[in-house]
Design brief:
141 residues; mainly alpha; Methane Monooxygenase Hydroxylase, Chain G, domain 1; 4 helices
Length: 141
């Protein structure tokens, strides 16, 4: 008699075996005719220029992460909108707090400047040092 863990182990082994068999079967039946175009980095019909390992600006990633975070939070609002009446005032308050925190996070990102695509350069203040001759001439007069 199998325990529950034994059933899970058998299921995992069958899943692994299934993946291996399907990949081997696909390798056997697919045609292997590599051409110069197929071996290029991009198969879009355009000739690649330069190295494919280009450094992207970090702002692309920051904007994408901010979008994902706020997009997922907005998706979580849809079920709340549909059923908040069933929970009465408590459900409304919880949703309002969630919206407030969402707005607070958006204001933080806005204030931090992560939503600005082109940030102004920060120039540190420069202290102008008086030359020694000016100091001596002022004191000598």
């Amino acid at each position: 008699m199998l325990t529950e863990f034994g059933k899970i182990l058998i299921f995992i082994l069958i899943a692994i075996l299934f993946v291996i068999v399907v990949l081997m079967f696909a390798k056997i039946i697919r045609p292997a005719r590599p051409t110069h175009e197929k071996l290029l980095t991009y198969e879009c019909g355009e000739n690649p220029e330069g190295s494919p390992w280009v450094k992207f600006n970090i702002r692309f990633y920051v904007v994408a992460l901010i979008f994902l975070i706020f997009d997922v939070e907005i998706v979580l609002l849809i079920p709340w909108v549909l059923v908040y009446k069933e929970f009465g005032m408590g459900g409304y308050i919880v949703g309002a707090i969630f919206l407030f925190l969402l707005g607070l996070g958006m204001a933080y990102e806005w204030r931090k400047g992560d939503l600005e695509w082109v940030r102004p350069k920060i120039t540190p203040p420069i202290l102008k040092k008086e030359s020694e001759t000016e100091i001596y001439t002022e004191t000598a007069v």
